[in-house]
Design goal:
Helix content: 10-25%
Strand content: 25-35%
CATH topology of the largest domain: Beta-lactamase
Number of strands: 16
Strand order of the largest sheet: 9-10-11-12-13-14-15-16
CATH superfamily of the largest domain: DD-peptidase/beta-lactamase superfamily
Shape: elongated
CATH architecture of the largest domain: 3-Layer(aba) Sandwich
CATH class of the largest domain: Alpha Beta
Largest sheet: 8 strands, antiparallel, barrel
């Protein structure tokens, strides 16, 4: 959203819409519900939400680098958010008054670690309330936290993103391990990287990708075109610009990103490409006659998709 919005205007935009399901019967992540919670906080406390969390949470805990970004106040040291289209670019402007309560907080890893430690102490929140907050209701979602097993260990975690930024917060509550990953590049695979860090912490095998050495590839025109992911409606596009191959691929929310394709392996049976900026691969397999027989797309989570040329 580029335009500013009051909390009441935001609530007005969805309050007349039909419910997706009967409350308590299913689970669906809802930013709108957080907007309603924000309105409740303001009504009960008789003060703006931003002031409330500063006075009752951030400052008492010593989180002096955390607060609400209203898009107006200058926040010293605030990072700029970036996206990627052939190279790092600025993201489209988003007015931070719009997502009040749903997201739009600024913070640091140090402050978030203070928050993590506060949640472990009954001095901030009574033990029974903490337990209730971390008890999943439907599926694995509790009160503002996902609760699941990662590598066989109980983990309380949450992913977050907004224009130009992404984050992941992992709390292995039984192991006293906390991993906080913040990025000011919205295409950074923070969930993958945070879990790779967890593997290192818990002495699990981490499969580091082998260095990709660029090689010559002359049959560029043969792979140019649009490719559909099997059983999905997502389309990946390969183009040529200034004699370089590029891959345009939809990511979260359908947003498009464009990465240079770097060939790093080629023989009579297969050609493999690596995307610039993030470690994703395109693999073309050839028949005995030299025709493209199979195309695979391996994303940064090591999930493999079959592609079909349109």
């Amino acid at each position: 959203m580029r335009l500013p919005s009051t909390l009441n205007q935001l609530i007005d935009s969805f309050k007349e819409k039909d419910l997706e399901f009967e409350p308590g019967s299913n689970f669906g992540y809802s930013n709108s519900a957080y907007a309603l919670l924000t309105a409740i906080i303001e009504k009960v406390s008789d003060m703006p939400y931003a002031n409330y969390i500063q006075q009752h949470i951030c400052h008492p805990l010593g989180m002096y680098h955390t607060g609400c970004d209203d898009g107006i106040k200058v926040v010293p040291g605030l990072a700029s958010g970036y996206s990627f289209w052939e190279e790092p670019i600025h993201t489209a402007y988003a007015d931070m008054s719009f997502p009040l309560g749903s997201y739009g907080l600024y913070s640091t890893t140090e402050d978030l670690f203070i928050w993590d430690q506060a949640l472990k102490s009954s001095k901030f929140l009574r033990k029974e309330l903490t337990e209730k907050m971390l008890t999943p209701n439907i599926e694995s979602y509790a009160c503002g936290w996902m609760v699941s097993e990662i590598m066989g260990k109980k983990c309380v975690h949450h992913f977050g993103d907004i224009s130009g930024f992404s984050s992941d917060f992992l709390r292995f509550v039984d192991d006293q391990v906390t991993i906080i990953f913040l990025s000011n590049m919205n295409v950074t695979p923070v969930m993958h990287l945070s879990r790779e860090i967890a593997k290192i912490v818990f002495d699990k095998n981490v499969s580091s990708p082998a260095p990709a050495v660029p090689i010559a590839f002359i049959k560029k025109e043969s792979i140019v075109g649009q490719y559909v992911i099997e059983n999905e409606d997502k389309v990946l596009t390969i183009t040529i610009k200034n004699k370089e191959l590029y891959l345009t691929v939809p990511k979260m929310y359908g947003d498009l990103y464009k990465f240079k394709l770097i060939p790093f392996s080629h023989d009579a049976t297969k050609t493999a490409f690596l995307t610039e900026m993030i470690y994703e691969r395109l693999i073309f397999t050839y028949s005995l006659s030299g025709e493209i027989e199979r195309v695979q797309y391996v994303d940064c989570f090591e999930k493999t998709y079959m592609l079909y040329k349109q």
